[in-house]
Amino acid sequence: MPSYLPAMKFIKNGVVREKLYRAFVTRAGEANEPLIGKILSLKQEQAQILGFNSYAEVSIVRKMADSVEAVDELTDMLREKAYPAAVKELAQLLEFAKENGFEGDELALWDTTFWSERQSEKLFEFEEEELRPYFALPNVLDGLFGLCKRIFGVDIVRADGEATVWHEDVQFFKVLDETSGEHIASFFLDPYSRPETKRGGAWMDVCIGRSQVLDRKPVAYLTCNGSPPVGDKPSLMTFNEVTTLFHETGHGLQHMLTNIVHGGAAGINGVEWDAVELPSQFMENFCYDVTTMYGAEDGSVPGMAVHYETGEPLPRDLFAKVSGWGVYCCDFLL
After folding, report:
1. Which of the residues 11, 127, 218, 251 could staple to 210 if both were Cys, CB 3.0 to 4.6 A apart?
2. Confidence band (pLDDT; 50, 70, 90) for 148?
3. Which of 164, 324, 301 lies closest to 239, judged by CA?
């Protein structure tokens, strides 16, 4: 994905994009098709043995939604609201593409990513790469930790050397109650991409769960695949990498700030799958928050959008463009 998406955004040759797209969406297809069919058949058999009509009914028992019908109703409602806007957005994209050299009657699936990127550059007059100097990882962490202090009442402090790490890139932090100074939790942050030894994507996982009986404080793993430092430059993050870090921190905070003292139910244990993304999406929204970007006016909370060389904040007009870019083609993408 880190190679595929940039290629689809920037390769000008539509034939090459089509070849890449078809290869990507059919990878391991022949090998997996019979396995998927068998899995579906076994799940249906399991559902019937347990007295359900479908495996969807089995699954929904441990979900937040009340029924399969409730899920269908939500999906239908989203389609009803988003589809007309998506059709309009796609028509506008086709018109833009034709004005800029596209010769077809309609956009194929391997065309939309390329042309939406070109339209984005035209509408917002910036490229994501322009943002990198304003989002050096140390500054982003300052802003993120300031946000956590502001809304959760915790101080997050570096504690490198207090725990064994699996790579020199990995950082270790403690989470303290801002009033009492009590050590609440800890986490490892593995922020950079290492393609030769580390799988792609981003995730949060449990290292240690909270347990009163075992006298254990929660410890989390926060793993990303962000841009590593180059030479004397710190890690300069894309805005997508910033939102990913906030996203995974949301999962981590749900694990670390739990008030439940019983291990089997503490943190993310027992959280329904259709609710598990709530804290992560909640945290992502603060990437568009003025105080998170620029800090508190009284200086009590640092901002994260600071040029790594000059110390100048992200220009306000560029922040406004980023905010608009955040909802660009959202119905079409949905």
Report:
1. 218
2. very high
3. 324
